TrEMBL record:
Record key words, sorted: Signal
Compositionally biased region (Gly residues): 72-102
Disordered, as annotated region: 65-175
Record field: compositional bias (Low complexity): 127-162
Top-level taxon of the source organism: Eukaryota
Signal peptide interval: 1-19
UniProt protein name: Uncharacterized protein
Species this protein is from: Lentinus tigrinus ALCF2SS1-6
Length: 294
């Protein structure tokens, strides 16, 4: 019995020693396959704040998550079910239509006119313009015949009632893609431990103050493309906004600092000594705010 107890104590000491001397990663990435696409820095007093934008080639990393103390969480439910249904339907339909429209019926061409003259005296015959006309003249002098009138024809002009096509126009102005503004939206805190060191409380406090000051000096909002992450960090503390939706999103710096600070207070030491990250997950799961080691 003493031998077994001594062995257990030795194993416990070895495990604790291994945990103390084994370093943990201090450079986590916000998502799998993260690549920095943009980086900049802003000086606030004697502090320098880093801004980075990441693209994510893979899914966002999962966390060994637990809800904060005193809170409860809910997860997705799954279920199976079967159902059958039958339905029949028949239908017939007939339709007729008639239409009338304007038309033209020009007069048929007149038949050629003919005339004849007999006699020894002067005589003149003028053929009328009616179709298929004939006339004869008898006199005592030489006869003359006027040439027949040309056949008359007429064509009715039909005015079209269709409106003239509108003039075509093209615009070269670029069309902007609308973004979904989730600034101020509600999210729920979930604590995570992904094997990295937690940020220090002092650095997170400095970051919150810096964002508050910068809110009046830079644009209050920022845009994040789908499968991208925007981070702001100081020292060991980093706040990140992750867009998991298929469309661009807009978020605001002040909300990022407030939500990140609240997640840190709920999930990080000394409140949660074993956790390293605080995650605030949106109700629809399309975005999240993370506070973690920078």
């Amino acid at each position: 019995m003493k031998f077994i107890r001594a062995t257990l104590v030795s194993l416990a000491l070895a495990a604790s020693t291994y945990g103390l001397v084994t370093p943990r990663d201090t450079s986590p990435l916000p998502c799998a396959g993260a690549q920095v696409v943009k980086t900049s820095s802003v000086t606030v007093g004697d502090k320098t704040v880093e801004l980075r934008t990441f693209s994510c080639d893979g899914p966002f990393h999962s966390f060994f998550s637990t809800p904060p103390s005193g809170n409860t969480g809910s997860g997705p439910n799954t279920g199976t079910g079967t159902g059958t249904g039958t339905g029949t339907g028949t239908g017939t339909g007939t339709g007729t239509g008639t239409g009338t429209g304007p038309g033209t019926n020009p007069d048929p061409p007149a038949a050629p006119s003919s005339s004849s003259s007999f006699g020894t005296g002067p005589g003149t015959v003028i053929s009328p313009s009616a179709p298929s006309s004939s006339s004869s003249s008898f006199g005592t002098g030489p006869g003359t015949v006027a040439p027949p009138a040309s056949p008359s024809s007429s064509t009715a002009a039909v005015a079209s009632s269709d409106p003239a096509p509108p003039p075509s126009s093209t615009s070269s102005a670029p069309v902007s893609t609308p973004t979904l503004n989730v600034c101020g939206e509600i999210c729920s805190n979930v604590c995570g431990n992904s094997g990295v060191l937690p940020p220090t409380t002092d650095d997170c406090a400095v970051l919150v103050d810096a964002v508050t000051i910068l809110n009046g000096q830079i644009a209050p909002n920022f845009e994040v493309d789908p499968s991208h992450a925007q981070t702001i960090s100081f020292g060991t503390c980093s706040f990140a906004f992750l867009n998991l939706s298929p469309e661009p999103m807009t978020y605001c710096w002040l909300s990022l600092a407030q939500v990140g600070s609240a997640a840190a207070a709920a999930c990080l030491p000394p409140v949660q000594p074993i956790n390293s990250e605080g995650i605030c997950v949106a109700t629809d799961g399309d975005w999240r705010v993370i506070v973690a080691h920078a």
